Amino acid sequence: MRMRGDRGATLALAVVAVLAGGCGSTAPPTLGGNPSAYLLTLDQLPSPDFTVYLAAAPIGAGWLDPGSSTAVERDGLVEAAEVEYYRQVAFATSNGPITLTAAAARFTDSAGAAAAISHLDTALDARSGASPVSTGSLAGGHAITVEGTLDGVQALEIVVLWRVENLVNSLDAEGRAGGLALDQLLPLATTQSANELRR
């Protein structure tokens, strides 16, 4: 975990991977444009005290799992972008995410995006200490969690992965175990999906 007050702090933590397919139709539409235009914006975040830590910028095929980058490229990755937000609060008493990274990756078609989701889901499932959890309102989802500690406090990382047509999306949140929960992130996934479907 990379807490912004101490960028050198690292922690092997929880990962929750949520997989949701796009709408089923005989000829799914292809969404175009720069993925950075789809990302969550500062005013769409649930807490008023977030700041932009890293502005929206292009990313490579290994943004969630470097080992899957070759497979993701072969699945037809065109371009991807992410933005990172940070909240300067006391970790030991925090609720909700401390860091939140939103990413979107555009593929040539929906079949390629679905294949990439499959590769990334498998890679996230294989992380050490994974255990399944319910994905709640995100139908057809898949989730795993692993907890760790930071300065003696139980900590959690949650990664949400889903697809909208030919776009693969992810949210990566870090925070205190007991203060951060998947149901805080699912509405944000819905918001980012709406950003994509409006364009």
Description:
The protein has a six-stranded antiparallel sheet. Strand 7 (about 155-165) and strand 8 form a beta hairpin. The chain is of the alpha+beta class and about 200 residues long. It has one domain (about 50-195). About 20% of the residues lie in helices and about 30% in strands.
Helices, strands, pairings?
Layout: E1 50-59, H1 69-74, E2 77-87, E3 99-107, H2 110-125, E4 131-132, E5 144-145, E6 147-150, E7 153-164, E8 167-176, H3 182-197
Antiparallel strand pairs: 1-2, 2-3, 3-8, 4-5, 6-7, 7-8
- The portion of residues forming beta strands comes to 25-35%
Q: Helical residue percent? A: 10-25%
User: Quick check: average pLDDT?
Assistant: 84
Q: What is the CA–CA distance across the termini?
A: 34 Å
Poorly predicted residue ranges: 5-25
Query: With helices defined by DSSP (H or I, 4 residues minimum), what is the helix count?
Result: 3
- Please report the total strand number as a whole number: 8
Radius of gyration from the CA trace? 16 Å
Q: What's the story with the biggest beta sheet?
A: 6 strands, antiparallel
Order of adjacent strands in the largest pleated sheet: 1-2-3-8-7-6
**Helix-strand string:** EHEEHEEEEEH
Q: Give the overall form.
A: globular
Number of domains: 1
Structural class: alpha+beta
Quick description:
The protein is of the alpha+beta class and 199 residues long. Helices cover 19% and strands 30% of the residues.
